[in-house]
From TrEMBL:
<dbReference type="InterPro" id="IPR029033">
    <property type="entry name" value="His_PPase_superfam"/>
</dbReference>
<protein>
    <submittedName>
        <fullName>Broad specificity phosphatase PhoE</fullName>
    </submittedName>
</protein>
<dbReference type="InterPro" id="IPR050275">
    <property type="entry name" value="PGM_Phosphatase"/>
</dbReference>
<dbReference type="InterPro" id="IPR013078">
    <property type="entry name" value="His_Pase_superF_clade-1"/>
</dbReference>
<dbReference type="Pfam" id="PF00300">
    <property type="entry name" value="His_Phos_1"/>
</dbReference>
<dbReference type="GO" id="GO:0016791">
    <property type="term" value="F:phosphatase activity"/>
</dbReference>
<dbReference type="GO" id="GO:0005737">
    <property type="term" value="C:cytoplasm"/>
</dbReference>
Length: 175
């Protein structure tokens, strides 16, 4: 059995998106705020993490910065896994505003992450995301303890929880 410590990234600095008018995946380049950095340093002291053998991380800046702090504090290697990225609100990679992101997110929530029968959407469905994240987790089943630095929506496809605070640890066991 493998224990995965799913750690949501620290608080990100979303205002950068509006300042630079970032589009699509460019919107995922934001770093952590000073509070987000403090959150991760505090999380790194959790005794459960002392058993970890490896950190795997989403490629997005906020998760990588979280993984880097954990790596420094726990002296663990980081492996970047592209498929640990967060939910894709627009599979065409064209959305460019917080307003549009909220609209896509609201539509996702209204449909519980499932495309209505006979329809398609711009956003990535819950089942698509669950399969993508699960595929990454499967690759690390030979370890006993693995830290995953990633995102709330992505983690909620594997572990049933309503909301995940920043820098929060979910202990997730898988056989």
């Amino acid at each position: 059995m493998t224990t995965f410590y799913l750690i949501r990234h620290g608080e990100p600095d979303w205002k950068i998106n509006e300042v630079y008018k970032l589009k699509g995946h460019g919107r995922d380049l934001v770093p952590l705020t000073p509070l987000g950095i403090q959150q991760v340093y505090k999380t790194s002291t959790d005794v459960r993490l002392k058993n970890a053998q490896l950190i795997i991380s989403s490629p997005y800046t906020r998760a990588l910065q979280t993984a880097a702090i954990l790596s420094k504090q726990l002296t663990l290697e980081i492996k970047v896994e592209f498929d640990l990225r967060e939910w894709q609100p627009d599979l065409s990679f064209q959305y460019d505003s917080l307003e549009q992101l909220k609209e896509l997110g609201t539509d996702y929530d209204l449909n519980n992450g499932v495309y209505p029968a006979g329809e398609s959407r711009l956003w990535e469905s819950k089942s698509m995301m669950k399969e993508r994240i699960g595929g990454v987790i499967d690759k690390y089943m030979d370890y006993e303890f693995v830290i995953i630095s990633g995102h709330g929506m992505a983690f909620r496809t594997q572990y049933e929880i309503e909301e995940i605070p920043h820098a929060f640890i979910i202990e997730y066991k898988r056989e």
